[in-house]
Amino acid sequence: MSRARNSLTVLTRPWHANFTEVNHLGAAFLAEPHKFDQVLTRVFTASRLSDNPIIAMTKGAGRTSEIESFDWEWELMGASSRPLISLGDATGGITHPGLGLIDFNLKLDEDWFKPGDVIVGDVGKDFKLRVQQSPVADGDGYIYVVRLLTDDTTLSFPAAGLAPGKPFSKLFSVYEEGGDQSGSTTYAMPMKLRSQLSTLRKEYSVTGDAANQALVVALMDADGKTYKDFKWVKYAEAEYWIQWYKEIERSLWYNTRANTVRGANGRAARTGPGIQDLLRDSHRHVYNTLTEKLIREFLLDIFFGRVEMSNRNIVAYTGEYGMLAFHQAMVNASSPFLTVDTNFIKGAGTGVSGNNLQFGGQFVKYVGPNGITLTLRHNPIYDDREINHQMDPNLQVPVESMRFTFLDFGGRGAGDSNIKYVHKKSGYKLGYVSGLQTPYGANKGGLMSNSKDSYTMIVHDQCGVQIDDVTRCGELILGTD
Question: Domain extents for the chain?
């Protein structure tokens, strides 16, 4: 497939993959005898964590878990109580249930409540019910005998509150003098969750002649140091590692759990879920225009009644245009309260000379109500045109660039994390398949795996990502309709 060429292009070089020969170097005008007066600017490092944000926040920050099997399980403790659900009117057609302080029947889905428990439905707390007798099994539910907790003989329980699906929750328990009954206690049973790793591999091969071929162009590392007369093999290996970590990062974001795709040897190429796959069961919302109100209500929905106000810290990963949309949303929300702010407008004495003014600043953090703190982080994966092909029709940038993935890294205890990088013990492997050429030079009488004048490097790892509680995370996704 040909690659597009614009008016600024003065030279194109052919692409190649996987195997490096001298012909590739010559065709790309990188080896002798071709001379070029230029420096190839390249961040020459294999661990650019800013390009791999989820690796940086998990593995790079020590949020890791090592396992000995391909699959793993963990338990998540849910709430210790929940409303019971009405299974329909069990009063026998009484028009005004409870009128005249008369007992009536209530059918619920569990036998949790005991005599003396005071429960309430969704019709208001003026209609409190006291359980009078132990529940009796009836088909798919349990019949409770209840009475309105009141001295008002004219009060009756609204019949609409007994319809199927209506909730009933316990408030407390009350008893008579000298009573021998006691209120109910409910317990949380942990949920068991299961996930699996992905097996990732990558290789490259270099011939003996290419391994010893010097590059004419120079390479620049992350510190600005320029390397000249550099051997091709060093550049090839650096490129290899850069792409390896990028592929792991992509897997942690985009992989999907699957067990039926077969590899060349007939075995399943099993894969574990990435972050987006895990968040399918979390809070997800499609938006058209990002506003502070939308962000506030979305985060309150995640945290409300579930996370203590002192621990409501969340990170939002987004692309460059998502960061711009976030900034604009905060500007729009704060503009009625802003005057000329020296954080945005600077003059003489602040690095700007004379009468010139400097304007600028960007919102990257949001402190919301009820203890919410949101930190915005750039995710270059969302901006990558190589893998994100759906373009915004107006901006002509990937729609993914305006996706917001909210991740709560906070744990249930000290040193714990809600999100972890999971890897298999001894799952990381690295080796060389050598012929007449080895990674350390020409083979001079050593063992060979093949008769070729080349060697191949192969890396293998088994890793994945775990989110203990996906309901503390979520996504805002730009609508495309």
Answer: 47-76+194-213+230-481, 84-173
The answer to whether the beta carbons of residues 52 and 414 sit under 8 Å apart is no
Q: Is 155 exposed, middle or buried (0-12, 13-18, 19+ CB in 10 A)?
A: middle
Residue bearing tokens 């026998």: 92
- pLDDT-above-90 percentage for the chain: 34
Q: Which CATH class is domain 47-76+194-213+230-481?
A: alpha beta
What is the rounded CA–CA span in Å between residue 138 and residue 136?
6
pLDDT at 36: 35
CA atoms lying within 13 Å on the CB side of residue 280: 9
The DSSP result for 74-112, as a single string, is EEE---S---EEB-S--SSS-SSTTTTT--EEEEES---
Q: What percent of the chain has pLDDT over 70?
A: 77
79 pairs with which residues across the strands?
none
Give the whole-angstrom CA distance, residue 259 versus residue 434: 33
* pLDDT tens figures, 71-124: 887 766 555 567 889 998 898 888 899 999 999 999 998 888 999 999 999 888
Give the single-character DSSP code of 213: P
Prediction pTM value: 0.74
Q: Cis before residue 33, ω within 30 degrees of 0? A: yes
